[in-house]
Predict the 3D structure of the following.
Amino acid sequence: MLDLLRTLADGFPRLARRAAEIGWYIGFPISFFKLVREVLLHWRTGTFSGEDALLTLALVMMVWFAFRFVGIPLGGSLLAIAYIAYSLEGGQ
């Protein structure tokens, strides 16, 4: 019984790290989509402000870091999400 508890205790940090990583890769694209859609909405309605400009810069940096440090799957997915948000906002 003691060995079982020790094994569970030793594996828990790895399991928690893995769960956080999975949550990050699920939550990150969802928040990215919402932010891109909000910026596009402000752009189309004419209420684009300095905050939106900084947010746009942050979104561009997010895509660049995704390509640089994770690779094509995440970077390409973010570009596809941005295109979907653009299409949903009525962009042609």
Remarks:
- The radius of gyration is 19 Å.
- The mean pLDDT is 86.
- Helices lie at 2-45, 50-70, 72-88.
